[in-house]
Design goal:
The complex is a heterodimer of chains A (442) and B (548). Helices cover 33% and strands 20% of the residues of chain A. With 442 residues, chain A is of the alpha/beta class. In chain A, strands 10-17-11-12-13 form a 5-stranded parallel beta sheet. In chain A, a hairpin with an 8-residue loop joins strand 3 and strand 4. Chain A is flat and about 95 Å long. In chain A, 35% of the residues are buried. Chain B has 4 domains: 124 residues, Rossmann fold; 186 residues, FAD/NAD(P)-binding domain (3-Layer(bba) Sandwich), CATH 3.50.50; 139 residues, FAD/NAD(P)-binding domain (3-Layer(bba) Sandwich); 71 residues, Alpha-Beta Plaits (2-Layer Sandwich). The radius of gyration of chain B is 31 Å and the shape is elongated. The chains are: A alpha/beta (442), B alpha/beta (548). At the A-B interface, helix 9 and helix 11 of A face helix 7, helix 8, helix 11 and helix 13 of B.
């Protein structure tokens, strides 16, 4: 918000750097401003378009746990507040479909289906690369079952589930239960529709479905219309049974109580990333404490090799997690996660104290996935003319921790390696200082 | 009194729940309201133009906008009023979105009624608003840096390069800080002395940096923009410096483990002493055992000191490098080798044959003259290791004089004596008090790279203030009526920003408008209503409440 309103800052969201010419003190940067198909100046962010948009897509911001529309705002408080059309899903961009609902609804006349990517040239004395990181794809560790076992989720997915503005409004429902509910409501919709159709048949032929079916079975009633009726009736009866079963299960759905956090998923692992991702121990502890605050019956185990509570107040926080929120820290490297009959994940690990292989069931297993170099970082490094380090992040030097290998180009935050928020914020200020230093020194 | 009311639909954000037209009609009928307008978006260009037109056409003396949050939009509306010639403090905002339509989406009729109530309250308050002028204060383009270690030197260097003057006060006879006592730096392996000498040289060569060594800050007066600092020099002479901002970079010191694990400085030494031995070549160990968390992560000192694990691994690698047959054991609780390079060092150390053994904090190792015994919780057994050199990894602790220094500046320290920043996550280098910043190990143990980054960062925080040339402060600050104040000091105790001082001669309290943030604590505390917050004076708030 402060950045968006600052008179000295021009914010180019939804844009990418394509070329950098010149040198420290005098760079010329070519930027592709991607087409939003919405005029940023005109769009007031009212949301009328998204409300009426007929195309439902998966909601990336909520880690696919919720739904968004093909004209969307990545998240509610985003700056700029303008909407964007997802051209891959929008009907208007489909060769065989027509829509145009958003353009009709928009009172600000901001929708522009013909908008093109724009190339912009910007002059700058210094460049700061603060491109962040990506998360490790947990499916690369198949033994943990992510993607296969629905109730094994990532820490970021848990963040969304714990968020009051998230898909479950902060209630800790298991993805398998959410899927069941979604299934159920879809089947109920279908059942209602079928019932209406059956009603039409009943009206047309002047008899109830129950009267009709035995006659049809016995062959007394024949013909295409009767075949259809019979088939729909059968489907409805089967569906009703299925719905009953599911409803019984759905009535028993309770929020998750037993949480197991698995640390170092893709970190400190010779197969994927050797490095430590620095912040995952703390976010697991934080999530555990929040889950426990939300529901005092929640029980948490954190499985990790070392618990790295390295930062101001972090060790104290870890101890508070144990003392007040009952977190159990279990020194281990989890071997495998399996699933038992009722969609409950089971964590297999070696208890190093008793030297036994043990298994504990959990309602939800949360994977602390590694902080990895952002995808496209190699390409960006090439464009910026800077080097990467052995770990794939932007390379910096010991005595100049913010400088990249090219004069005038600086980097801060997780673009140069995993770090927590205070360190990123401090580094951001230092990058500003480095830029000012070279620009003002003249 | 001529009041104009503007009711915003915010697209469907408000109008989807609240009947905005009804609210507008209602507002139009309120006493003194001479114009009431409905806008699709009051904050859009056309909405703003409408306000400005109305100010002229209706000669408005108050503007009330019923829309969203003042946090995001008040500045825009205020400046629009000012452009139209209306004092911006005669503007009042009513939040019928966050506090009404968003929270009552299911109850349209009630929400509309509530919006009317809120507008009526806003209009009632607006009648009592007073015109104000922004407060302007000078900024001295000069900065005091306390401490000449990596963090302080880095801050000074950056500020000087930006063209700002710096006064650097160092307690020791020479700047350089803790790096002076360290051997080599990980992971690059270069000599700490070289690194710090280069930095000191750079700083000393800058004409706009004044360095006072052997000196201490004796007193700090004033406030952001114009601090007055007394610096006592070695000879006992005290001089006064006037600065606009202060950077605290006073560092920390390694804990001396007196009475712990038979510490004697000979066969049982600290990592700092090992650094000295390795640097001078006097190191002669063959069987080295290091114990981590000595005096840290314990009941009396709960925090983790961040640097000790990497120091132990760095020194273990150096020992292995000069004597591959040396036995090195590191007894640890958690190896805090966070990030990329440090974790790599841990892999390397394992590869070099350094042995890492977990111990249980509940059953700490026991030390005899040449043997150390401990319980190994992973193996579930008691172990013993022979040693000829036992190295204790002790934490960095706050300097003993940190609390005294903090009191001079009226900034807080935490329970461990480290300086306490304004916000643990989002403002790691700021104090809650304006114009004073913190960096390096004075805040919490930091590596050389971290201390440098934080020093540079503090410089940028300072620059963002001093480059403005003049400080412009919102006029919504507290004032104390000297006629009625009895000098009870209830207000000054409640002020989180140290903005209220007691004048003993007159026996009254006084607000420093430059430091005041307008929180209103003093006004709420004052038993005689002498302390009042502009824009939220009793008659203004009471008018609002009575209109409910």
């Amino acid at each position: 918000m402060d950045v968006g309103r600052h008179p000295n800052i021009e914010l180019l969201a939804y844009s990418e750097v394509e070329k950098v010419d010149g040198e420290s003190g005098d760079f010329r940067i070519t930027i592709r401003k991607k087409a939003r198909y919405v005029d940023e100046e005109k769009c007031t962010g009212c949301g009328e378009c998204a409300e009426k948009c007929p195309t439902v897509i998966s909601d990336d911001y909520n880690m696919g746990l919720g739904e968004a529309k093909a004209i969307y705002r990545y998240f509610a408080q985003g700056i700029p507040s303008a909407y964007t059309i997802d051209a891959n899903h929008c009907r208007q961009f489909h060769p065989k479909k027509k829509c145009g609902v958003c353009a009709k609804k928009c009172q600000a006349k901001a929708i522009d289906y013909d908008q093109q990517d724009q190339m912009i040239e910007v002059g700058a004395g210094a460049i700061i690369a603060a491109t962040g990181y990506d998360l490790f794809d947990a499916q690369k560790t198949p033994q943990y079952g992510y993607g296969r076992i629905p109730n094994v989720i990532t820490a970021l997915e848990l963040e969304r589930l714990l968020s009051a503005s998230g898909p479950t409004e902060g209630h800790l429902y298991r993805p398998s239960d959410l899927a069941l509910q979604k299934d159920l409501s879809e089947q109920e919709k279908r059942s209602k529709k079928l019932l209406k159709t059956l009603g039409r048949h009943e009206k047309k032929f002047g008899q109830t479905s129950d009267e009709f079916y035995p006659l049809y079975e016995s062959g007394e009633l024949q013909g295409k219309d009767y075949d259809k009726w019979a088939q729909q009736l059968k489907e409805h009866r089967e569906l009703t049974q299925e719905i009953e079963g599911k409803r019984e299960k759905a009535d028993k759905i309770a929020a998750a109580k037993r949480l197991a956090f698995i640390q170092c998923v893709g970190s400190r692992d010779i197969r994927f990333n050797r490095h430590c991702s620095s912040f995952c121990c703390m976010h697991s502890i934080k999530e555990a404490i929040i889950a426990r605050e939300h529901d005092s019956e929640v029980e948490v185990s954190v499985f990790g090799m070392d618990i790295r509570a390295v930062g101001k107040g972090f060790e104290e926080y870890r101890n508070r997690g144990a003392r007040k929120s009952g977190i159990r820290y279990i020194r281990s490297r989890v071997a495998e996660i399996t699933e038992n009959g009722d969609a409950t994940p089971v964590v297999w690990y070696e208890d190093t104290l008793t030297r036994e292989v043990r298994q504990v069931p959990a309602d939800l297993v949360i994977l602390a996935t590694a902080c990895e170099p952002a995808s496209g970082v190699k390409q960006l490094a090439e464009i910026l003319g800077i080097e990467l380090n052995n770990f794939g992040f932007f390379k910096t030097g010991g005595s100049q921790p913010i400088d990249t290998t090219r004069p005038g180009v600086f980097t801060c935050g997780c673009a140069q390696g995993p770090m927590d928020i205070p360190e990123s914020v401090a580094q951001a200020s230092s990058a500003a200082a480095r830029a000012a230093q070279i620009l003002l020194k003249g | 009194m001529r009041i104009g009311v503007f009711v915003c639909h915010c697209g469907s954000n408000i109008a989807g729940t609240v009947d905005c037209e009804a609210v507008t009609q209602y507002a139009a009928a309120l006493p003194d309201v001479v114009c009431a307008v409905n806008n699709l978006y009051t904050c859009s260009e056309s909405g703003i133009a409408e306000i400005q037109k109305a100010v002229e056409a209706h000669d408005l003396s108050r503007v009330v906008v019923a829309s969203c949050s003042p946090r995001t939009h008040q500045p825009l509306f205020q400046s629009s009023c000012a452009q139209a010639g209306l004092n911006p403090y005669l503007f009042e905002m009513v939040n019928i979105r966050d506090q009404c339509s968003w929270v009552h989406a299911q109850k349209k009729e009630e929400a509309t009624e509530k919006a009317k109530d809120l507008v009526r309250m806003g209009v009632a308050k607006s009648r009592f608003l007073e015109p104000q002028e922004d407060i302007k204060a000078p900024l001295i383009p000069r900065t005091l840096v306390i401490g000449g270690g990596t963090a302080g030197l880095s801050a000074a260097e950056a500020l000087a390069d930006m063209g700002l003057e710096v006064v650097l006060v160092e307690k020791a006879p020479e700047p350089g800080g803790l790096l002076r006592q360290i051997n080599r730096l990980a992971p690059e392996g270069d000599r700490a002395a070289d690194r710090i000498s280069a930095l000191v040289e750079t700083v000393m060569a800058k004409s706009n940096i004044t360095v006072y060594t052997d000196s201490e800050v004796e007193s700090v007066g004033g406030y952001i923009g114009s601090f007055e600092v007394a610096v006592r020099q070695k000879e006992g002479e005290t001089l006064t410096e006037k600065v606009g901002c202060i950077v605290v970079a006073s560092g920390a010191v390694p804990l001396q483990p007196k009475g712990m694990y038979n510490y004697d400085g000979k066969t049982v030494i600290t990592q700092m002493e090992l650094e000295e031995q390795l640097g001078s070549g006097s190191y002669a160990g063959r069987q080295v055992v290091m114990i981590q968390c000595v005096g840290a992560r314990s009941p009396e000192r709960e925090y983790c000191s961040r640097l000790c694990c990497m120091t132990a691994v760095k020194n273990a690698l150096l020992i292995k490098e000069q004597d591959p047959d040396a036995q090195v054991h590191i007894l640890y609780r958690d190896m805090q080798m966070y990030g990329t390079e440090l974790e790599q060092m841990l892999w390397d150390a394992r590869g070099q044959g350094v042995r890492f053994e977990v111990y249980d904090a509940e059953q700490p190792p026991t030390v005899e003259s040449d043997i150390i015994r401990f319980y190994h919780p992973l193996m579930g057994e008691n172990r013993e290791i022979a040693y000829d050199l036992l190295v204790l990894s002790t934490p960095l602790v706050a300097r003993e004089d940190a609390p005294a220094l903090s009191q001079l500046m009226r900034v807080p320290v935490d329970q461990n004596g480290f300086f306490l920043e304004a916000h643990a996550k989002l403002r790691p280098l700021d104090f809650a008090t304006d114009g004073i910043f913190v960096c390096g190990s004075a805040r919490y143990p930091a590596t050389v790279a971290e201390a440098r980054a934080q020093g540079l960062g503090a410089a940028s925080r300072v620059a963002s203030i001093l480059f403005k040339g003049e400080r412009v402060i919102d006029a919504i600050v507290a004032e104390i009526n000297s006629e009625t104040c009895v000098g009870c000091m209830g207000c000054s105790d409640m002020c989180p920003f140290g903005a209220i001082s007691y004048l003993p001669e007159q026996n009254i309290c006084e607000v420093n408008m430059i430091l005041c943030k307008g929180c209103g604590n003093c006004a709420a505390t004052c038993p005689s209503q002498s302390a009042q917050l502009r824009g939220f004076k009793p008659q203004q708030i009471l008018a609002q409440i009575r209109a409910v």
